[in-house]
């Protein structure tokens, strides 16, 4: 079956003309037709556009053109990446039907590398959430149990990859939006070093935290995609000029001899599922067996990461989302010819934003207000500095840090909607990497007692993304040898409605 | 304003002036994107996802704009920040595409400077608090009878100006100038305008808005500690308006206080036609822009080497330049001050560079052209004549092609857009007639018409020739070479 093959394998088949991109793309489009009504992973599917792109790749390969390893391979793109040929809604009524006049840098790089964009994946509204339940277009569902959330904000991408709707997808991670969905769906999610992948054309939530990255079923697939999208971009002033060529090679290492692995002492205990901790402890032992030296490291400031994050992130987004005012694009409400521009702006924002977006805009506006900014935003920035300092000290003693990606497995749809704090706890372990800009990943490490996937978070110092792939690759081969295949093979067969 | 006059006000009150000047930079591209920075293009043609603030777009800073800000900071004797950041100033308005302005807040690129101004021979020192970088907003065009927002049926937005680089220069309160306060305010803005032109960082055209001034004015009883409540007057779009607006506000505030009312802290609008200000929106110190450091841009950390390289590109400091020019040109203090007060220093300098003598350049700009600028209510350098054209007019005089009187008509022609001086001479037929044949007939006529005068000259009263010369000039419509006419008269009436 084509759809269960890895992106790397599909790329090889297409390059060798053993399969055409049109065949491969058709297989995935058919799978989407079958399962998307159940999973709601895609908000928009462009069958014709995808097949046209696939045909063009097939013709170039037939003409003898040497293309990259992912040429002709389908991909899903999270709906906050601007695409000139598809709507970019960010899961919000505010941008329903909005087609940007430009491609994000990452999307442009996908097209240049010959990937076939099949559609746009669902997400929490403007990436605010851990379950896709804040999407204005309904939640996506977890292929392991369709009553459960596929994580968020990038739950559309994780559900699509886990259910074989696409072999690859793009995500963006502000506090865990790539890693937490990967953990709860048994897939691989990478948050590159901040600045490693261009943010240009990715609709911003919190500028100093947002980082685009790959979602995949295998570590090598993630590395292949990472190498395509990474690299300096003049259009993003915070973009780094790094060499990203070693990621795929790093994913092929089997030996972790000499690697120093630090367990974050703060990320265990109360609130962590027993089954999650059991898989985590086994994974650590497995790393040891592969040659790693394991130490326990305390990062005391991490305890304050969540509250600091919930000041900095809303503060930045309150400003980033100010532009959605109905004046130039997107939803305009109440413009009946009698109202002032100010009233129309206000009515448009009232109608266009969902509850969580409004909650965070209000929190962020408050945190930046005169008289409160020092006490809230200012204090949070100090915590951020302490967290960076904790990481610096930790990485003197180890090469990577590990923790469970999430304290629990996938929760039920509706379970945490009324309790924002419970929802925010899903990102407890992933947030410090965003505050400090570190490279960070989630890899599947087995199933909890409830039969749902558990993820291992690996955190590397900034600009040391290769270490993620080294750990992930070695662990994946070791686990799959024991499992006799991919963890996803053990998922219940997803069925159409 | 009839019951209180300016001089009376100053017997009781001390004015304090604070000036905020926005200078639009003449960089080729905008502050954060590659769009052309051009005045007068078709609306919304110089735009892109970045300056339109489209979702997902990100700014990249214009290095040339940073360079201009540093050079201006240095020319204003400021310290240049070792490290500073851009900041977001958050507020909602349709001309702001992102609903925040990317500006600087507590970390300006330049700070703690000063300038010295000559006003009527006295030197005033104005302290500069800061000069910071920011972006301009778009422009609202209100469709309706008055072009103002309150009776507009709809408004259109032009985002060509959105993202144009600006430097805002803020003074500390200027106190102690007394009745000279309006003149000092004007001199300060004139100085800035001259400076940014010399630095070649802005066109500094106040009428096009590329140099804009907001004037903060307050008054306090003489001897009082602290400053009074201030107003901020906007739309002050010429040097003359700066002076008038400050003067008007001083008197208006005194009237308010004299009537027992408090001055309201607010923005006010200046009206060019009446020279008055009117109430705008109330403004309090608590306006909350929720500033925070712009996370999409890296901090700016100009190396000391770069700053020193830029310092080396600065034009000569104004005081040093004035001293040098006065020596070079050999003018007395009074004559030289006349040039400076007329705002003609640069113009005279360029005219001399174009070939005129300092004396003739001074004569044209300070008397003839200043009078015309005054008459038409524009600044001297806004007259439609260049220093090179003035030098060309003088050259025509020197060559005897026109006389002084005709030269004024040549200037009329240039100002009226009739072309270069030589073209005006040709089109208007202004050449002095020194051809003996043509003049001879006119002289004969004059002699025949004035036998009495002719007799006096024959009797040796040579000075009487003036009357006949006048007759000839009149007959020749001013186009006769006076020296030649005199020569002919004396020749014909010689014993």
Automatic annotation (TrEMBL), chain A:
PROSITE patterns: AMIDASES. This is Glutamyl-tRNA(Gln) amidotransferase subunit A. Residues 23-468 form the Amidase domain. Heterotrimer of A, B and C subunits. Gene3D superfamilies: Amidase signature (AS) domain. InterPro entries: Amidase, Amidase_CS, Amidase_dom, AS_sf, GatA. One of its GO terms (molecular function) is glutaminyl-tRNA synthase (glutamine-hydrolyzing) activity. Allows the formation of correctly charged Gln-tRNA(Gln) through the transamidation of misacylated Glu-tRNA(Gln) in organisms which lack glutaminyl-tRNA synthetase. The reaction takes place in the presence of glutamine and ATP through an activated gamma-phospho-Glu-tRNA(Gln). It catalyses: L-glutamyl-tRNA(Gln) + L-glutamine + ATP + H2O = L-glutaminyl-tRNA(Gln) + L-glutamate + ADP + phosphate + H(+). NCBIfam families: gatA. The keyword Signal does not apply. Belongs to the amidase family. GatA subfamily. GO terms for cellular component: glutamyl-tRNA(Gln) amidotransferase complex. The active site is at 78 (charge relay system), 153 (charge relay system), 177 (acyl-ester intermediate). It is an enzyme of class 6 (ligase). Keywords: ATP-binding, Ligase, Nucleotide-binding, Protein biosynthesis, Transferase. GO terms for biological process: translation. The keyword Transferase applies. Its EC number is 6.3.5.7.
Automatic annotation (TrEMBL), chain B:
Its EC number is 6.3.5.-. The keyword Kinase does not apply. Residues 267-286 are annotated as: Disordered. The keyword Nucleotide-binding applies. GO terms for biological process: glutaminyl-tRNAGln biosynthesis via transamidation; translation. Belongs to the GatB/GatE family. GatB subfamily. Heterotrimer of A, B and C subunits. Allows the formation of correctly charged Asn-tRNA(Asn) or Gln-tRNA(Gln) through the transamidation of misacylated Asp-tRNA(Asn) or Glu-tRNA(Gln) in organisms which lack either or both of asparaginyl-tRNA or glutaminyl-tRNA synthetases. The reaction takes place in the presence of glutamine and ATP through an activated phospho-Asp-tRNA(Asn) or phospho-Glu-tRNA(Gln). This is Aspartyl/glutamyl-tRNA(Asn/Gln) amidotransferase subunit B.
């Amino acid at each position: 079956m084509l759809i269960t093959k890895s992106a790397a394998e599909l790329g090889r088949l297409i390059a060798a003309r053993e399969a055409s991109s049109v065949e491969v793309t058709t297989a995935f489009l058919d799978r989407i037709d079958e399962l998307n009504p159940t999973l709601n992973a895609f908000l928009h599917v462009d069958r014709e556009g995808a097949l046209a792109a696939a045909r063009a790749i097939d013709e170039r390969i037939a003409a003898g053109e040497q293309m990259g390893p992912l040429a002709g391979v389908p991909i899903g793109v999270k709906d906050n990446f601007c695409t000139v040929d598809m709507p970019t809604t960010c899961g919000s009524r505010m941008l329903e039907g909005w087609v940007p006049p430009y491609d994000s840098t990452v999307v442009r790089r996908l097209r240049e590398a010959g990937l076939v964009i099949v559609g746009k994946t669902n997400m929490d509204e403007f990436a605010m959430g851990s379950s896709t339940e804040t999407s204005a277009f309904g939640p996506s569902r977890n292929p392991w149990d369709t009553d459960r959330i596929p994580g968020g904000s990038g739950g559309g991408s994780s559900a699509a990859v886990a259910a074989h709707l696409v072999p690859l997808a793009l995500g963006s991670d502000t506090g865990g939006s790539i890693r937490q969905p990967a953990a709860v769906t048994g897939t691989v999610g990478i948050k590159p070093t901040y600045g490693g992948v261009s943010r240009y054309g990715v609709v911003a939530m919190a500028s100093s935290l947002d980082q685009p990255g790959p979602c995949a079923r295998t570590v090598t697939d993630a590395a292949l995609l990472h190498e395509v999208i990474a690299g300096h971009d003049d259009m993003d002033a915070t973009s780094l000029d790094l060499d990203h060529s070693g990621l795929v090679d790093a994913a092929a290492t089997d030996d972790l001899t000499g690697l120093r692995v630090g367990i974050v002492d703060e990320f265990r205990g109360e609130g962590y599922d027993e089954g999650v901790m059991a898989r985590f402890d086994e994974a650590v032992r497995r790393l040891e067996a592969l040659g790693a030296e394991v130490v326990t490291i305390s990062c005391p400031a991490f305890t304050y990461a969540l509250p600091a994050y919930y000041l900095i992130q809303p503060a930045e987004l309150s400003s980033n989302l100010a532009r959605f005012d109905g004046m130039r694009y997107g939803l305009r409400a109440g413009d009946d010819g009698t109202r002032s521009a100010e009233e129309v702006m206000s009515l448009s924002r009232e109608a266009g934003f969902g509850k969580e977006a409004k909650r965070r805009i209000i929190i962020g506006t408050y945190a930046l207000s005169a008289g409160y900014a020092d006490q809230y935003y200012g204090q949070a920035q100090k915590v951020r500095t302490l967290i960076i300092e904790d990481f610096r000290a930790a990485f003197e003693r180890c090469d990577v840090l590990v923790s469970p990606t999430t304290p629990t497995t996938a929760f039920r749809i509706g379970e945490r909607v009324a309790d924002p704090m419970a929802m925010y706890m899903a990102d407890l372990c992933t947030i410090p990497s965003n505050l400090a800009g570190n490279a960070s990943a989630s890899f599947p490490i087995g199933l909890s007692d409830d039969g749902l996937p558990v993820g291992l978070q690996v955190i590397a110092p900034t600009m040391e993304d290769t270490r993620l792939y080294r750990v992930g690759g070695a662990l994946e081969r070791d686990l799959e040898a024991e499992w006799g295949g991919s963890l996803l093979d053990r998922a219940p067969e997803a069925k159409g409605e | 304003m009839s019951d209180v006059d300016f001089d009376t006000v100053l017997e009781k009150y001390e004015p304090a002036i604070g000036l905020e000047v926005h200078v639009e930079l003449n960089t080729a591209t905008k502050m954060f994107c590659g769009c052309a920075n051009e005045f007068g293009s078709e609306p919304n043609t110089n735009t892109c996802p970045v300056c339109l603030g489209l979702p997902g777009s990100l700014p990249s800073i214009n290095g040339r704009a940073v360079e201009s800000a540093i050079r201006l900071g240095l020319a204003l004797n400021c310290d240049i920040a070792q490290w500073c950041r851009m900041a977001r100033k958050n507020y909602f308005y349709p001309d702001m595409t992102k609903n925040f302005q990317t500006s600087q807040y507590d970390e300006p690129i330049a700070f703690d400077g000063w300038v010295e101004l000559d006003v009527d021979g006295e030197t005033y020192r104005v302290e500069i608090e800061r000069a910071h970088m920011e972006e301009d907003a778009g422009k609202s065009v209100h469709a309706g009878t008055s072009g103002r927002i309150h009776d507009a049926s709809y408004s259109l937005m032009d985002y060509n100006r959105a993202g144009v680089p600006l430097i805002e220069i803020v003074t500390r309160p200027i106190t102690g100038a007394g009745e000279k306060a309006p003149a000092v305010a004007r001199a300060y803005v004139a100085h800035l305008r001259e400076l940014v032109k010399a630095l070649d960082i802005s066109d500094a055209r106040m009428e096009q808005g590329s140099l804009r001034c907001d004037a903060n004015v307050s008054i306090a009883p003489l001897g009082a500690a602290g400053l009074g409540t201030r107003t901020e007057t906007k739309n002050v779009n010429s040097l003359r308006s700066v002076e008038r607006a400050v003067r008007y506000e001083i008197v208006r505030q005194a009237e308010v206080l004299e009537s027992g009312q408090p001055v309201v802290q607010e923005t006010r609008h200046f009206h060019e036609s009446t020279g008055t200000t009117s109430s705008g929106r109330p403004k309090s110190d608590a306006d909350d822009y929720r500033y925070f450091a712009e996370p999409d841009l890296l901090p700016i950390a100009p190396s000391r080497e770069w700053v020193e390289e830029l310092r080396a590109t600065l034009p000569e400091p104004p005081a040093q330049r004035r001293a040098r020019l006065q020596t070079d040109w050999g003018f007395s203090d009074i004559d030289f001050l006349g040039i400076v007060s007329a705002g003609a220093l640069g113009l005279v300098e360029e005219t001399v560079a174009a070939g005129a003598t300092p004396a003739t350049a001074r004569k044209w700009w300070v008397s003839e052209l200043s009078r015309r600028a005054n008459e038409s209510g524009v600044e001297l350098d806004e007259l439609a004549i260049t220093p090179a054209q003035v030098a060309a007019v003088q050259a025509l005089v020197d060559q005897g092609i026109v006389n002084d009187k005709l030269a004024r008509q040549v200037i009329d022609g240039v100002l009226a857009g009739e072309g270069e001086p030589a073209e005006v001479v040709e089109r208007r037929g202004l050449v002095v007639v020194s051809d003996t044949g043509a003049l001879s007939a006119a002289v004969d006529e004059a002699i025949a018409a004035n036998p009495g005068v002719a007799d006096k000259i024959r009797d040796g009263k040579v000075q009487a020739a003036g009357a006949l010369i006048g007759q000839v000039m009149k007959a020749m419509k001013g186009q006769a070479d006076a020296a030649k006419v005199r020569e002919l008269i004396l020749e014909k009436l010689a014993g």
